[in-house]
Write a structure and sequence with these properties.
The protein is built from 10 helices and 12 strands. By secondary structure, the protein is an alpha/beta fold. It folds into 2 domains: 117 residues, ATPase, nucleotide binding domain (Nucleotidyltransferase, domain 5), CATH 3.30.420; 154 residues, ATPase, nucleotide binding domain (Nucleotidyltransferase, domain 5, 2-Layer Sandwich).
Length: 291
């Protein structure tokens, strides 16, 4: 009996994939760096990755993308080269015509994953804030995922925290420029793998940079919770791995900037599913779509 989904989480830096059963168990997985040479090299990489798996018991394929899925099936993902109006759905149908393929934003997929099997289980008003190569948020209001009129809701990387940001930041949003992973790497000029170990060892420059970014994250979360008044904010993405260093300053910024009643019972926590949130969430979306 076929009861598995191939879930793919396409990020700005890495691509992760796994075979997911309907109970959430991941049977096998694969992860690799994205080849960013061109838009078509990325799609070739996705197709090659799919073909590495045994698709015999697969009832569908789900792909979580770091951007917006248009009604046409084309994708807008500014952190991927050439993906401003990329015909992802059409290309995948050409390669895999016999298997249903679902495409969803990574922010919504991670939200669904965390609601299904993670720390957001049991909550009805949830924000899943991804802080990685870029920034986005999956939004759940009264138990339902909210995507907006054109699927753009949750693009919180575009929050304006500096009114002069256009001159400096170019084509990405202000909050994203100031608080996503590249902002830390830009300040420190360090390999991402070294940042956590340097922080653990008390490197003052690393800790100061993390504190600065944490304040930006706290301001962003303050804006979000003042508007949406969620029960829980789950923080995922690569930057969430630094949560124990970020948390004190994030909480200070929330107390300073958020509506005081909006944070009275607010729970802000890192994802418990980690790198599996996107794979599990897109699998859940596909299970519900094909049944």
């Amino acid at each position: 009996m076929k009861n598995a989904i191939l879930g793919i989480d396409l990020g700005g830096t890495n691509i992760r994939a796994g075979i997911v059963k309907d109970d959430g168990k991941i049977l096998e997985r694969h992860e690799e760096k994205i080849n960013r040479n061109s838009s078509h090299r990325i799609i070739e990489q996705i197709c090659d990755l799919i073909e590495e798996f045994n698709l015999t018991d697969i009832i569908g394929i789900g792909i979580a993308i770091p951007g917006v899925v248009k009604p046409s099936g084309n994708v807008w993902a500014p952190n991927l080269p050439g993906w401003k109006d990329f015909p992802l759905s059409k290309i995948l149908y050409q390669h895999f015509p016999s298997i249903p393929v679902f495409i969803e934003s990574d922010r919504n997929a991670m939200l669904v994953g965390e609601k299904w099997l993670g720390i957001a289980k049991g909550y009805k008003d949830v924000v899943f804030l991804i802080i990685g190569t870029g920034i986005g948020a999956g939004l759940m209001i009264d138990g339902k995922v909210y995507s907006g009129s054109e699927g753009i809701a949750g693009s919180v990387g575009w929050l304006v925290t500096d009114r002069n940001y256009r001159q400096e930041y170019g084509e990405i949003g202000c909050f994203e420029y100031r608080a996503a992973g590249p902002s830390i790497f830009r300040e420190l000029n360090l390999d991402p793998l070294l940042i956590s170990s340097r922080a653990e060892n008390g490197d003052p420059l690393v800790l100061k940079t993390i504190e600065k970014v944490a304040e930006e994250i706290g301001i962003g979360i303050a804006d979000i919770v003042s508007i949406l008044n969620p029960e829980i904010v789950v923080v995922g993405g690569g930057v969430a791995n630094l949560w124990k260093f970020l948390e004190p300053q994030v909480k200070k910024a929330l107390e300073k900037w958020a509506h005081p009643l909006s944070i009275k019972h607010l729970y802000v926590t890192p994802s418990t599913l980690g790198n599996d949130a996107g794979i599990l969430g897109i699998a859940k979306i596909v299970f519900e779509g094909v049944r």
